[in-house]
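Lab notebook: predicted structure, single chain.

Context: the supervisor wants predicted structures on file for every construct in the current expression panel, including those that have not yet been purified. This is the next one on the list. No modifications to the sequence; it matches the entry in the shared construct table.
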Amino acid sequence: METSVIDQARATEFASGSTYLNTSTCGLLPRRAAEAVRKLADESAVGVRGGVGSFASVDAARAGFARLAGVTPARVAVGGSVAAHVGLVAASLPPGAEVLAPEGEFSSVVSPFAVRGDLRMRYVPLTGLAEAVRPGTALVAFSAVQSSDGRIADLDAVREAAAAHGARTMLDASQSAGWLPLDAGAFDHTVTGGYKFLLCPRGTSFLTVTEEAQSALPTLYASWVAAEDRWNSTYGPVEKLAAEARRFDEPVAFLAYHAAEQSLELLAEVGIEAAHAHATGLAARFREGLESIGHPVVPGASAVVAVPGLGGREPDLAEAGVMVSARAGNLRAAFHLYNTVADVDRALDVLSG
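Prediction complete. Output recorded below exactly as produced.
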């Protein structure tokens, strides 16, 4: 029997000790990524390199994410958290600007706007987000896939509505990039935490900016790493920031980015289309099984499955070696490269037992 690219990746890169269905919280590190961290840590411990990491790995991770997101590396900035990237976008808005977001949106997507205190925040149901864009809406901030229940936003409808009313868009792809195809260039900004479906460590985050939107963003994190010529900008004020989105780079954690380079390379080898088919196929099997044992689920075709009112079963599942999460009262399970039909059936067995 021919081995699929998913099977090959699972066999060579992952060795989970549990039924791991918790990628929406944190993805598993591929072996090659973990090895990259160990190698850099060992080198740093004995002083065989001039620093504690390489910008070559940072830029390779940037390029890897750009390829996955359908943009050029020139449009990608790197950093350590989604909230910091969102903070840049929030700082670009004038006082009184209206920010439209879904009700129950993940905190990091909306809090940097809300805490300013001088912006008008408006929240509407996710299903009515596109219809709620109106003249005077400055920005629509939303996730491609909702963290609490896995619902997928109508990306085309929101983008088209925003364009019709002259509003900018900021898409959070943290729960989608890595299994759902992403066209980052279709949005003014995208923000993506790398430690979920991108299989990177915590401390990796990617911001994409269109050329038009770049002119409006402030360079709050200006430092020598964001300079056009990094190594000749280490003393005194930076004379020239990078002409591309790298001007918004934060100083990064090199251990995380050495691993991210490897994780994103693995995803490129597998292909997002294959990852999407695999993950959503398992999720569909899980939804069908849940319905058959009397647990109605949030409908949809997401790789993230939510069961309303069942969040209290998370400890029982963990004790049985099935790792899921509880969010907003929901039991949440997420499927990715390393999961199999056996994982689905094991979770269903525990829930039905």
